[in-house]
Design goal:
Blueprint: H1 4-40, E1 44-45, E2 51-59, E3 65-76, E4 83-90, E5 93-99, H2 118-125
Antiparallel strand pairs: 1-3, 2-3, 3-4, 4-5
Length: 130
C-alpha cells in the first residue's frame, strides 16, 4: 500500500531524476557551444567533453547575481600542450567562454604581384592636382 512517506520518497526520487536529465541536456548544449567556438578559432577540443566545475552565483551582463553552471574543458593549438578553458551558462544560455592564453600564429595574406601602392595610384588617377 502507498503511504504518504512512500509517496514523498517517490517524489524526491522523481525530482532528482528530472534534475539530472535536465543537467545532462545543459551539459550537451555547453559542449556544442564549445565545439563551435573552438572550430571558429581553429583549436582542437581535447577529450571531446566538458566537465561541471561548479554551480554557483555569477554576475551577468547587467551586474545581477544569477545561478550559473561553470564547465571546464581543455583545448590544444599544436597538439603538444593542453590549455584550460571554461564556459559559463545561465540555464541553456551561454554567457561566456574563456580560454587560457595560448600561442598562435599571425596569418598574413600572401603577397600578390598585382598590389598597387596608394601613392602611385593617386598620382596616376588624380587629374585635378596637375
Amino acid at each position: 500500500m502507498l503511504t504518504l512517506e512512500n509517496l514523498f520518497v517517490l517524489m524526491v526520487l522523481a525530482t532528482a531524476g528530472a534534475w539530472l536529465w535536465h543537467s545532462h541536456g545543459l551539459r550537451e548544449k555547453a559542449l556544442e557551444r564549445v565545439k563551435q567556438h573552438c572550430a571558429k578559432l581553429e583549436l582542437e577540443l581535447l577529450d571531446g567533453n566538458v566537465a561541471l566545475k561548479r554551480i554557483g552565483l555569477v554576475r551577468d551582463a547587467n551586474g545581477r547575481k544569477r545561478l550559473a553552471r561553470v564547465y571546464g574543458f581543455e583545448f590544444t593549438v599544436t597538439g603538444e600542450q593542453r590549455h584550460p578553458g571554461t564556459v559559463t551558462q545561465f540555464g541553456a544560455h551561454t554567457m561566456q567562454i574563456e580560454l587560457a592564453p595560448y600561442p598562435f600564429e599571425i596569418k598574413t595574406p600572401p603577397h600578390a604581384g598585382n598590389v598597387i601602392e596608394m601613392n602611385q595610384w593617386r598620382q596616376e588617377h588624380n587629374r585635378w592636382r596637375h
